[in-house]
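Appendix B, record 7
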Amino acid sequence: MRNAIAPINVETEHVTTGDIFADLGFSPMLAGELTIKSDLHRSLLEHIRASKMTQVELARVLQIHQPDVSNLLRGKLNLFSITKLCQYADRLKLKVRIEVEGAQDKKRVTQPNPPSARRRTVHKTVKNIQPSAAQPTKTTRRRAVA
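Structure tokens (predicted):
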């Protein structure tokens, strides 16, 4: 049994307010901008991967140079504005919709506990994981959809 690897018991605890950028310490304004950019970028990447375009074809469709295509595909979002990402979505024949959520919208959600200004949620997970099979789970909430 020299090659056998024993499973590892992993216990993780994540404390979150529901907005990863706010949790990382960004200002509310910058956190909102980063959330919109990341949602647009994710939607663009999903469409690009599904279409199986090469970088040369993508550069022609998006009307940009190949190095910019590479930066887009690598996720260097600091090089792109929200406006540019919306233009790229339009050139890929995608429809962009940005939704604004107000305080009244949040009150409509049924919750067992009364809502607070900044609700903290603790997620606890205990798993028996093989070392090579450890993959994080994702929960996303989109604000911008392309």
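Remarks on this record: The CA atoms of residues 90 and 113 lie 42 Å apart. DSSP finds six helices and four strands in the chain.
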